[in-house]
Design a protein that fits this description.
Strand order of the largest sheet: 1-2-3-13-12
GO molecular function, one term: zinc ion binding
Helix content: 40-55%
Strand content: 5-15%
Number of domains: 2
Keywords: Metal-binding, Zinc, Zinc-finger
GO cellular component, one term: nucleus
Radius of gyration: 25 Å
Protein name: MYND-type domain-containing protein
Structural class: alpha+beta
Shape: globular
Domain MYND-type: 41-78
Number of strands: 18
Oligomer: single chain
Largest sheet: 5 strands, antiparallel
Length: 473
């Protein structure tokens, strides 16, 4: 290991063991979430008794040492925060201004972070995705609103021109990390120059955790030889269908993931699977339950660009982009795989004939378990479709309100049992919502019941989760 004032990195190509430190790094710029204001120190991010800054009456510190250490970064914003009070500056605006200040008046343009003995990254090495931002309706609206806030907030720092400012904004939103506490709750956000070199995979071999404001990247698996080009972390929540993961990555990071997990045919069989009616059989049974229910995009060619633009523009017509006039994608076009077709899925993908059409009236005829041969009667298919639709509605309602309804979740789980396969993502997501609800009200014994039921889902859909405690302990 090579020790630097700002980071530690692995400087060898020797083998790596699970749990080994790959990188630790201080942020280029960071901010405590406004939801944690008054609960944590704005400098070290530790949760403790804090005192307000006597100037702005907004920023808090745990002691004089942190206040002194933060002064160079805080002094320029102190008067401006006081000026706009009682308004609260949005977290993204504060982070962007911290970046502007460091680049304009600090060491931002010369700041180097080494990730090997001779290789380093600087702010200018981060990608701005300028052309993608211009097409992104939601991000452009956010950028415009932030510009208004910045003009009101700043009086001693002249803003860059619009093009340069959008470049800074793009580097910030694409490369920033959500800072988590030990319970994996979001407490802030920061930009980490070296860590931003690590690409995404839905089947990661490394994980990023945090010690206060410092990011720590550790190996999740043994590797015979360390190679930065092969290190992958997950940027997003993994317990979703491949299509939902791909869509989120496309919206947030402007790429369609084509990792081995997304394109794993065997795993696709489980994401929306029904349970075999034979109680002792654990094989997934695939039943078509919803029109145009996409499971994965297989990227092939130019048409992915149009899907990309449809999603960025907030349009819902990306299904149309996947289809031609006959409802099929022709050879060489982008493919999507729908639910209810697992028995023939491998052959269909290999043929590259495009989208699998599951709207045929005969699609759910002769549904049988491929392992034990148990037939799925029409009434069981209708029950499965009803439970899946109910689960989807409940999950969307909870997502829109950011609240987990304990009794609703419990009722839904009762409906799901014996109908949905134990590794079905809807079942896993409802279980997790129920677990979180019991944790929030500190009913620990009941939470443990759902935690135990969740473990197989975590190990299958989100393998990093059950290792994080070990790696951060």
């Amino acid at each position: 290991m090579i020790e630097q004032t700002i980071n530690t990195f692995k400087n060898t190509d020797s083998s790596v063991k699970a749990g080994d430190l790959i990188l630790s790094e201080e942020p280029f710029a960071y901010t405590l979430s406004s939801t944690e204001n008054g609960n944590r120190c704005d400098y070290c991010l530790q949760k403790c008794k804090v005192r307000k800054c006597s100037g702005c009456q907004f920023v808090h510190y745990c002691g004089k040492s942190c206040q002194r250490a933060a002064w160079d970064d805080h002094k320029w914003e102190c008067a401006n925060i006081k000026k706009v009070a009682p308004k609260v500056i949005p977290d993204a605006a504060r982070l962007l201004v911290k970046i502007i200040n460091r680049l304009k008046y600090g060491d931002g343009t010369s700041y180097k972070v080494f990730y090997t003995r001779t290789s380093f990254r600087m702010w200018k090495d981060l990608m701005s995705h300028y052309s993608d931002l211009k097409k992104d309706k939601k991000r452009m609206e956010h950028f415009t609103s932030l510009c208004g806030v910045l003009y009101d907030f700043l009086n001693d720092i002249s803003l860059p021109n619009t093009v340069d400012l959008m470049g800074l904004y793009g580097r910030m939103v694409i490369n920033s990390f959500t800072i988590l506490d030990n319970d994996l709750n979001s407490i802030g956000s920061g930009v980490y120059i070296a860590a931003s070199i690590i690409d995404h995979s839905c089947n990661p071999n490394a994980v990023a955790t945090f010690d206060g404001r410092k990011i720590i990247v550790r190996a999740l698996v043994d590797m015979p030889k360390f190679d930065w080009k092969k290190i992958r972390i997950s940027y997003i929540e993994l317990m979703k269908t491949p299509f939902d993961r791909q869509k989120e990555l496309l919206q947030s990071y402007y790429f369609v993931c084509q990792c081995e997990k997304c394109l794993n045919i065997e795993q696709l069989k489980y994401v929306h699977a029904a349970k075999c009616l034979k109680q002792e059989c654990d094989n997934p049974v695939n039943v078509h339950w919803q029109k145009n229910c996409r499971l994965v995009i297989v990227e092939k060619c130019e048409r992915i660009r149009r899907i990309h633009e449809s999603i960025l523009n907030g349009e819902n017509n990306y299904d149309e982009e996947l289809e031609d006039g006959n409802g099929d994608i022709q050879n060489g076009d982008d493919n999507t795989i729908e639910n209810g077709v697992a028995s023939d899925i491998a052959n269909r993908v290999d043929e590259s004939v495009g989208e699998i059409n599951c709207d045929d009236k005969n699609v759910n005829k002769n549904v049988v378990c491929s392992k034990c041969g148990t037939k799925y009667p029409d009434e069981s298919i209708e029950v499965f479709k009803e439970v899946m639709s109910c689960s989807e509605t409940i999950l969307l309602d909870m997502k829109n309100t950011s609240v987990a309804y304990m009794e609703v979740c419990k009722c839904c789980i009762q409906k799901q049992k014996g109908v949905l396969h134990p590794l079905n993502v809807f079942y896993a997501q409802i279980l997790e919502q129920c677990f979180d609800a019991f944790v929030n009200v500190q009913l620990w014994q009941k939470a443990c019941v759902y935690a135990e039921a969740l473990l197989p889902c975590f190990r299958y859909h989100r393998p990093v989760s059950h290792l994080i405690t070990l790696l951060t302990g």
